[in-house]
Amino acid sequence: MTGYYHSVTLDISKCKGCTNCIKGCPTEAIRVRNGKAQILQDKCIDCGECIRICPNQAKYAVYDSLEKLKEFKFKIALPAPSLFAQFKENVSKEQIINALHQAGFDEVYEVALAAEEISIAIREYIKNSSIKPLISSSCPAVLRLIRVRFPSLIENIIPVKSPMEIAAKRAKEIVSAKLGIPAMDIGTVFLSPCPAKVTAVKQPIGTSKSYVDAVVPVNVIYGEILKNLGKGIYQTIFKRANGLGVGWGRSGGENLAIGWGNNLSVDGIHNCIEVLEEIEMGKLSDIDYVELQACNGGCIGGALMVENRFVARVKLRRMSEKLGYNPNFDENEIKISIKNGLYNMEEPITGEINYGLDGNIAKAIEKMELLEKTLKGLPGLDCGSCGSPNCRALAEDIVLGRANETDCVFKLRDRVRQLAKEVLDLSQKLPPTMDTDGGEVNETG
């Protein structure tokens, strides 16, 4: 894989250089230089934190427009489980699905349905694994975080595809088999809660190509759904998800659906980092499985959602309870699919290519020594006013030629004071025969 694709993008014209984003970025992927933010492509994980905290809306997500639907003869919506919690509590899941049909989709395959399958596959994998803890592969922002900051934990990632990918694959297969429509004429459109899912489709991890053909944010499709609520029903060829699959939309829902093992649920990207550091130090070896969600509250807290995540969490929980937890699948059939490798990632996950300070080891050691020396000369306040997230990041930027020591306001102030003192010292050394205009004084009169 060469180059980087990122859904999270910067609108330079709106950026005021306020430095809010550099303090909130979990991978230190943002700098402010010359009064404008810059995103370091090799460090960004598309978690959407900068979109949330930017007061000027200078960060935004790039995604597919609804116009892309016209490219496909048969269009299938793949709603994330969290979508169903964006509407009033008296709006049912079926009403939302019918509204999507009215909005222009020929069919709707719930990602929550695939989540039920995946839950069984994960349970079986945990039972037979010697690695502890295994880490969920469902959140693409967390996967990229591990690749960028915790490459030693890649072996802990469970090599199981995400529900989004399984849903897209299942939907195409069923439509082709039952309706005789060629796969090339079928378009699967994921309705996404976050920008990381957009990136996961455009530049997937664990597979060479995604089964998803387009990604549209929930906050974009939301108006179309509202407009079409109550306008009719249609007869689907797909099964419908139960409460276990729908519950995947909130933190803890994945573990609830797995229903086995000593598992841990963590949400919020900074909390995920804290737990990953614990795993890296070998402190969580008694845990079987860790569900990590980059967004606060899980997918219901995604940067592309509409409803308040606390309200959405309650709605999703109540909807799950109302739908019940009776499985829609024969576990024996799922176990056969597991043996056939249906849920396995097709490619190994690798660490992000990062040459650190230098690709040459000798030069890297020299630059590290220079970095430590530079760091000692900085104030250590981590104020962020220099445009780097902390003093160590500034020291690294200086060594790599991305910044100057005087970008630190404290170092700049010291330098100005030094220059002022030097100018004063020089002025006092002017010869007494020189007047202020630079002309000579006639002392004999």
Explain how this protein is built.
The chain has helices at residues 20-24, 49-53, 93-102, 111-127, 140-149, 163-179, 195-202, 218-228, 243-246, 253-258, 269-280, 309-323, 331-339, 361-376, 391-399, 409-428, and strands at 8-10, 30-33, 36-39, 59-61, 74-79, 107-108, 134-135, 186-192, 214-217, 263-267, 289-293. Helix 11 links the parallel strand 10 (263-267) and strand 11 (289-293). The strands form four sheets. A four-stranded parallel sheet has the order 6-5-8-9, sandwiched between helices. It is elongated. It has 445 residues and is α/β, with parallel strands linked by helices. Helices cover 39% and strands 10% of the residues.
Describe the structure concisely for a colleague:
The chain is of the alpha/beta class.
* Number of helices in the DSSP assignment: 16
- Gap between N and C termini, in Å? 85 Å
Shape: elongated
- State mean pLDDT (0 to 100 scale): 92
What's the total number of strands? 11
Q: Name the helicity range.
A: 25-40%
Please outline the major beta sheet.
4 strands, parallel
Strand content: 5-15%
The SSE string, one letter per element, is: EHEEHEEHEHEHHEHEHHHEHEHHHHH
**Rg calc:** 28 Å
Low-confidence runs: none
Structural class: alpha/beta
Strand order of the largest sheet: 6-5-8-9
Give the topology, please.
Elements lengths: L7 E3 L9 H5 L5 E4 L2 E4 L9 H5 L5 E3 L12 E6 L13 H10 L4 E2 L2 H17 L6 E2 L4 H10 L13 H17 L6 E7 L2 H8 L11 E4 H11 L14 H4 L6 H6 L4 E5 L1 H12 L8 E5 L15 H15 L7 H9 L21 H16 L14 H9 L9 H20 L17
Parallel strand pairs: 5-6, 5-8, 7-11, 8-9, 10-11
Antiparallel strand pairs: 1-4, 2-3
